[in-house]
Amino acid sequence: MIYSYIINPTAGQHDNLEKNIKSIEEHFCGSDDEYEIFVTEYPKHAKIIANEIAKSGKKSRICAVGGDGTLNEVVSGVVGYENVEVGVYPDGSGNDFIKMFGERKDFRDFGYIRNSKTHEVDLIGINDDYCINIFSLGLDADIASDIPKFRRLIPMFGGKFAYTMSIVKNLFKKLGKKIKIDIDGEKMELNCLLMAVANGKIYGGGYCAAPEADIDDGLLDVITVKNIPKFKIASVISKYKKGEHIVKSAVADKFKGIMEYRKAKNIFIESKEKMIINLDGESMFADSVNVRVIPKKIKFLIPLACGC
After folding, report:
1. pLDDT in tens, 197-256
2. Closest CA relative to residue 198, chosen from 78, 82, 276, 99
3. What is the pTM of this model?
4. Containing structural domain, residue 110
5. Are residues 92 and 228 both part of a single domain?
6. How many domains does the chain have?
7. Which residues of the chain have pLDDT under 70?
8. In a domain, 55, yes or no
9. Region of residue 183 (phi > 0: left; psi between -120 and 50: alpha; otherwise: beta)
10. Residues 139 and 104 grouped into a single domain
11. What stretch of H or E contains 167?
12. What's the gap between Cα 239 and its chain centre?
């Protein structure tokens, strides 16, 4: 068994790199276990590194050191390889996927991947890409896409300021996207404020989009929100963030008529215009999206302290 750590130096607090490397080295000091440390140098580098590890054929446990985006890259690099298990050391700003299993502090131990439980989790296939937590489009995806721009523009103000500025920018533009959707053969057209297709429950640093999602049930939770007047958005999003829009596997009475919820295996989405789509916090453009569940595709490492 080889333990591989893939560190994203730009995740979360950017000054953690040396501290993280030192902590890993100290953890293995005096041990005969084989370990290796990689530091990513550009976007998608973690996927390339993870794929090389997987292709070696060695039995490996890979720890993604970063946020949900880093975990996404590592997972995408090992799909289809049975010799690899994946864990995460949460060092990003959100790390929402691990909330399916426990608290952030449970995973804040570089050594947990040496003595942990393995849980087979579903994966979301999105065209030729993958997503382990939540795929989204619409207002939230647009906001997420603009955050890095504001971080680069005014770096001294940090992530919260960038998030606020992105919200302001996007609320001042025309909202709603006209899309066509096919959900397990059921077709519909929608002027959509936002849409989430979920494997996990939480995304965006704490938005509980899919409170009844299950990461190993072979199904995806699909939530759509129709375009609504801007003055109503704040009240709807506040309930959406808390997960109060879904009650007993149905849309709460207050939101019937503007939201729809169902579980599905295959979703096809298309638009006449390019859409910004969000995969585990990473943004890209598409005019059509084929979304599908891939059951129990990833072996995910969980700390023994977690009750799953």
Report:
1. 999 999 988 889 999 999 999 999 999 999 999 889 888 988 999 999 999 999 999 999
2. 99
3. 0.92
4. 2-114
5. no
6. 2
7. 12-14, 154-161, 163, 307-308
8. yes
9. beta
10. no
11. helix 158-171
12. 20
